[in-house]
Structures are given as C-alpha cells and as structure tokens.
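R.M. (postdoc): so does anyone remember the format we settled on? I'll just put the structure tokens first.
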C-alpha cells in the first residue's frame, strides 16, 4: 500500500470550505496542496500552495491537476466520475470514481442501499409529471420529491402535502428525473462519521445529532444522546456502506431516527458539515483524518476531547454589513471559523462557531443567543 511522505502534494477538486480545512490540516502535517477551483478567491484556493483555474467538470484542468500531484481527492461528490476515471490512469483518486458514480445520482445511491439491505425510506423513481401523479398515490402524502442529480442542502427538493402541490413540486425539481420519498416523521436526525483507510481499517467518530432548519443544517450536537444499541446499529449500517463501496477517506452517513428504527437519508463520501465539530473537539479532525486516509497514512484517534455544539453561520448574518464578532471572540469556550468567502448571500454557509460544553443544550442556547446578539461592526480598524 503506497504511503505518501510529507512533502507530497494532495490535489483537491473543489475550492470550498471543506477543501480549505483539508488544506489547513495537510499543510500543518508538512504536505503541499493544489486546488482546482473556478476562482482564486474561493476558500481553499486562497490558502493552497497552487491553484488551477477550472470548473469541476473541466477535463483539461483535471488532467493538469492529475499530472502535478501525488493523489487526488474531492470536496464535493458532484465531480463527473468519468473525469476522475481518466485522472485515475495518472494518479490515485480517493474516493474512487466508482464511489462517486454510486453516490452522485440519488437513484443509483438508493438502489445501492437496497442491494446491501440498508434500511431507508420508502422511495421510487419518477421521470415525468404523469409518473409523479401516479407515484404520489403509491408513496402516499406527505412525501418529498428530490432531483436525482446535483442536489444538496435541500436544493432541488420539494415537499408535497396535497395533490395541488404535485405540479409545483415537479417544476421545483426542474422537471428532471427525480426520487419520490415518503416524508419520514423522524424523532431526530443523526450522522455517523467514519474514516476508511485503503487497507479497509475504519475509525468512527462519536455519532452526531443534527438540527436542520428549512432542510439545511443549523446545528450539530455531539455526542448524540442515543441508547447504546441504536448507536451500535447506526455504526453497523454505516460501516457496511463504506465497506461495500470500498471507500477511502471520510464518509458521513445521514440517518433518520424514528423510535428506535434507523433509515439512511444520504451518504456523503467526504468530510461533512455535521463533522465540523471534530475540528476543535476531537483529537483528530475529520479534515486531518481525510488527508491521512487518502495519503495512506495511519488513521488518527477519533476520541472526543469535549462534548461540543457546532452552529453554522449563514450569509443572512451579513444583512446589515460585516458582523462584529466580539461576543463570540470573548467567550472562552467558543471558537470562530470564517471561510473567507467574499459574497455573503442569504443561506450561504460563511463559517461556523464551535462551543465546547459538558451541557449540550446549554451550549446550543448559548450559541443561538450569541448569534442573536451580533450587530454590524463599526469598522474600528482604519
Ligand atoms: P437532503 O438534502 O436529502 O439531506 O435533505 C435535507 C433535509 O431535508 C434532511 O436533513 C431532512 O431534514 C429533510 N428531509 C429530506 N428527506 C426527507 C424525508 N424523506 N423525510 C423527512 N425529511 C426529509
């Protein structure tokens, strides 16, 4: 099994915050990083040793990257698998094109889960408005329509509660091939975060409890307060997914908890927003762990140093100008992460706050109150 020593270069396709935190950790360990992204001011491109200008589907740029790095990874599952298959002829690609091909189409992902008998919500494929009308009768109301391609953070999704909402939902997914799923009345949403090494060794982080608002992650609390049997079952499901895919790197498996039953919502074959808490609350962050796995290094310790709450910071906070971060910076147990994005659009993830606290409900209340107190900065620095 090839192990890359410090000084080697990791190539990352995608320049967002996940890539940025991978670059931070890779550089701390003596590695170099080359990022392929469309703009030089993207979070990871700002801090990488080298930046290759290109879109995620730019074959020529991916080829240039492959020729100049020791291993390639991605910060999004939406890189065309065919480009990664070409890159793999030049250098190792982790996760493999096969993993991305299985994950990036929700229909293929659902069929894969069915094949390995992983529990999941009742779902069917839909290819037309008439087909959708028929399938709504089969799945039943309420249900949720999700486009098969390029969906994330609730984008390309529409909840259908009445017959009148069928047609608007079809338009909301761009009239494109979709999955129709039962709307699960879950008690909680959790994610299992794991890392798998090229040789098959796996390490698991404490299971995270996720709180979504408007289908987007608002906060993560770790560890999730789960009965041991449920936690074991969640880890067992996630590990069978990673093993069946022969995945290499970090993986997040999002699940719904209904009573004591678990249903897989979706798989992310990379570091995940719900794993940001590990960067500051665990011995090895998910970003260091991903870097270790794709470079063939031994996996790190996943122990939790302190229970933690992570809250996302969205562009809405910039509504009246740059916030004054003093209330967060003056809290001993709070840690501020800003990704350096230059355009704070509403709903855009601009950063996150990590709060370390034995009492997770207190930490969540404290974090939400802190965000409520943020006001625009007075531009004190000339
Ligand atoms: P996704 O992009 O598929 O992860 O969906 C984003 C969020 O929408 C999830 O985290 C849930 O809060 C909600 N959601 C998605 N699918 C379902 C479902 N089948 N039942 C209930 N809630 C769902």
């Amino acid at each position: 099994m090839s192990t890359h020593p410090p000084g080697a270069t990791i190539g990352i396709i995608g320049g967002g915050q996940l890539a940025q935190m991978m670059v931070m950790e890779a550089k701390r360990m003596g590695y170099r990083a080359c990022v392929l992204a469309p703009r030089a001011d993207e979070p990871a491109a700002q801090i990488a040793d080298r930046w290759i200008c290109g879109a995620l589907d730019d074959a020529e740029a991916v080829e240039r990257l492959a020729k100049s790095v020791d291993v390639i990874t991605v910060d999004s599952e939406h890189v065309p698998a065919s480009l990664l298959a070409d890159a793999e002829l030049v250098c190792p690609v982790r996760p493999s094109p096969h993993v991305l091909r299985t994950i990036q189409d929700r229909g293929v992902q659902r069929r894969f889960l069915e094949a390995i008998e992983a529990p999941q919500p009742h779902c069917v494929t839909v290819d037309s408005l008439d087909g959708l009308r028929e399938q709504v009768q089969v799945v039943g109301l309420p249900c949720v329509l999700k486009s098969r391609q390029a969906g994330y953070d609730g984008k390309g999704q529409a909840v259908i509660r009445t017959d009148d909402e069928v047609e608007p939902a079809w338009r909301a997914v761009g009239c494109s091939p979709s999955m129709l799923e039962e709307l699960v009345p879950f008690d909680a949403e959790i994610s299992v975060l794991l890392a798998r090494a090229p040789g098959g060794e796996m390490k698991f982080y404490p299971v995270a409890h996720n709180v979504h608002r408007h289908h987007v992650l608002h906060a993560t609390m770790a560890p999730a307060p789960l009965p041991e049997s449920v936690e074991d079952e969640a880890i067992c499901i996630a590990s069978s997914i990673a093993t069946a895919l022969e995945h290499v790197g970090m993986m997040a498996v999002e699940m719904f908890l209904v009573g004591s039953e678990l249903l897989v919502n979706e798989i992310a074959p990379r570091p995940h927003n719900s794993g940001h808490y590990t960067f500051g609350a665990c011995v090895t962050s998910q970003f260091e762990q991903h870097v270790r796995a794709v470079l063939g290094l031994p996996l790190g310790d996943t122990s939790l140093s302190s229970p933690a709450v992570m809250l996302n910071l969205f562009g809405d906070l910039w509504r009246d100008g740059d916030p004054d971060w003093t209330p967060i910076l003056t809290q001993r147990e709070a840690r501020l992460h800003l990704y350096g994005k230059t355009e704070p659009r509403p709903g855009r993830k601009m950063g996150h706050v990590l709060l370390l606290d034995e009492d997770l409900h207190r930490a969540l209340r404290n974090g939400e109150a802190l965000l409520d107190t943020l006001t625009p900065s007075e531009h004190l620095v000339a």
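R.M.: ...and that's the designed sequence above, right after the tokens. Also worth knowing: The domain at 9-93 is CATH 3.40.50.20 (Rossmann fold). The first helix runs from residue 17 to 28.
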